[in-house]
């Protein structure tokens, strides 16, 4: 469906919503849809209008969850007064209204939208505050055909006449929306995305129209409409056809011409994004744009080098303690995921913990791959645990040369490099002459070195001629009790009883 060009120009899609709204206004009715509230930091909320002049408030896509307030109650009052009401919203919102009303009304027209998910109002508010807090915003449009035509985009117009316009693949909010990292949990398992739909009429973008019929594709917007019941058919039969350029009936298989469209009609069962929980935690600590570049481009203030996928709980807690404290100090941190190519990646331990508590790079199997990290990370921290131990990577007994990944040998000289509570694991160092030369070369790149044991200070001086070395506490002991309690609360273990402990290296 395509409305006349003057209607499509001010619409996100093909203009069907405007046509349906006019149908209601002609009958003295009311239209309810999502609008930006300029007076409340541009939050999205459902409002009711009864004049065509106010329709501009409801036009346009809003990729944010709407606040319904008491709108369902207002709609019920209008229906009980025998008024026509059109309600437009995501299918879950339409289902919510139906559940609230508990009965069908002849003069209620429900329009559900083809929805790819909605985002949290808090995330939306954070994005706006950090990017436009010092500007007087006049209008916000996600899709303005005057700027980029029929496509997802972001446009902000200011009181002084200036504007900010960006295509979706460059705008941080749109990029993150498309990634689905910040989608609400309920959207991953949507119960209302499949057929049969919950509204009388379903409208959305006709993605793939260029493949279905290139002759009517003009980049100005085409609506895909599903008439779901007799009430919806009666509305379509009686709308003002003079405002429509094209209204064609098609077979249901047209939805297969584009994966976006086809996906709207299958029961949604997405896996919740592995990065979602870490994303929400980082969003409380860092700027929105910084978090976007972190997750989508691998940008970070600090890259943490340590044992990855260890079966040793203490080692993991040490790594997490360093990671957690770096974040609290204001450094956006990423754990460098290094698994040597000869190690079976399937034997990666504690995956659930890593997914929930770490932001990680992509897996690296070879040293030469890791040089690219210098493009995206400013500071590298090695630590902690026995990462300075000879043979920590299990190279020598296989006859391979030393790569010293845990000594951050892949880090460029122009990067800041720090070791924190690193350990040799022994009071002696077993590396041969050539290994010591290479290890010394790697250690000379460090800007600051701290170690876990007093013996390590002597080894640094004696073997590698490094004087300025500091002994620090085991990182696990600087982890807040509150953090430990959160980790313990995640445990699926139910048994209670005695606690066993032992001394690894007793001195007496």
TrEMBL record:
Residues 3-66 form the Coenzyme F420 hydrogenase/dehydrogenase beta subunit N-terminal domain. Residues 312-497 form the Polysaccharide pyruvyl transferase domain. Residues 84-244 form the Coenzyme F420 hydrogenase/dehydrogenase beta subunit C-terminal domain. InterPro entries: Co_F420_Hydgase/DH_bsu_N, FrhB_FdhB_C, Polyferredoxin-like_ET, Polysacch_pyruvyl_Trfase. This is Coenzyme F420 hydrogenase/dehydrogenase beta subunit C-terminal domain-containing protein. It comes from Brachyspira aalborgi.
């Amino acid at each position: 469906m395509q409305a006349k060009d003057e209607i499509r120009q001010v619409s996100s899609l093909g203009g069907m919503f405007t046509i349906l709204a006019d149908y209601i206004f002609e009958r003295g009715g009311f239209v309810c849809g999502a609008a930006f509230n300029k007076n409340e930091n541009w939050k999205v909320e459902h409002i009711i209008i009864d004049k065509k002049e106010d329709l501009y408030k409801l036009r346009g896509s809003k990729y944010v969850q709407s606040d319904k307030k008491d709108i369902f109650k207002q709609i019920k009052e209008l229906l009980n007064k025998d008024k026509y009401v059109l309600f437009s919203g995501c299918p879950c919102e339409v289902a919510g209204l139906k559940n609230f009303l508990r009965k069908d009304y002849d003069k209620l027209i429900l329009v559900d939208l083809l929805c790819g998910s909605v985002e949290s109002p808090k995330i939306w508010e954070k994005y706006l505050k950090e990017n436009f807090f010092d500007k007087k915003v006049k209008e916000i449009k996600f899709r303005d055909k005057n700027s980029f035509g029929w496509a997802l985009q972001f446009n902000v117009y200011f009181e002084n006449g200036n504007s900010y316009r960006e295509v979706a693949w460059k705008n941080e909010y749109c990029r993150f929306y498309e990634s689905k990292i910040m989608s609400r949990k309920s959207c991953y398992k949507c119960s209302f995305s499949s057929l049969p739909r919950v509204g009388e009429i379903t409208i959305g973008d006709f993605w793939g129209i260029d493949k279905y019929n290139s002759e009517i594709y003009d980049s100005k917007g085409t609506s895909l409409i599903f008439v779901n019941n007799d009430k919806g058919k009666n509305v379509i039969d009686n709308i003002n056809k003079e405002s429509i350029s094209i209204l064609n009936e098609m077979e249901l298989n047209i939805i297969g011409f584009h994966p976006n469209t086809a996906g709207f009609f299958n029961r949604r069962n997405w896996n919740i994004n592995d990065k979602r929980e870490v994303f929400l935690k980082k969003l409380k600590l860092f700027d929105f744009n910084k978090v976007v570049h972190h997750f989508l481009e691998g940008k970070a203030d600090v890259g943490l080098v340590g044992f990855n996928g260890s079966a040793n709980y203490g080692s993991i807690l040490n790594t997490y303690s360093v990671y957690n404290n770096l974040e609290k100090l204001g450094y956006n941190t990423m754990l460098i995921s290094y698994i040597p190519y000869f190690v079976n990646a399937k034997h990666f331990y504690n995956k659930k913990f890593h997914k929930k508590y770490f932001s990680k790079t992509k897996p690296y199997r070879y040293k030469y791959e890791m040089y690219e990290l210098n493009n995206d990370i400013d500071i590298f921290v090695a630590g902690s645990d026995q990462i300075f131990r000879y043979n920590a990577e299990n190279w020598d007994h296989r006859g391979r040369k030393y790569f010293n990944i845990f000594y951050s040998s892949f880090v460029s000289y122009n990067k800041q490099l720090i070791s924190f509570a690193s350990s040799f694991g022994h009071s002696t160092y077993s590396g041969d002459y050539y290994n010591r030369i290479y290890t010394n070369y790697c250690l000379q790149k460090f800007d600051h070195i701290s170690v876990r044991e007093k013996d390590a200070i002597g080894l640094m001086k004696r073997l590698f001629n490094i004087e300025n070395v500091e002994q620090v506490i085991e990182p696990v002991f600087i982890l807040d009790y509150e953090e430990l309690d959160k980790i313990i609360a995640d445990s699926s273990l139910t048994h209670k009883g005695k606690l066993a402990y032992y001394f690894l290296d007793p001195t007496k």
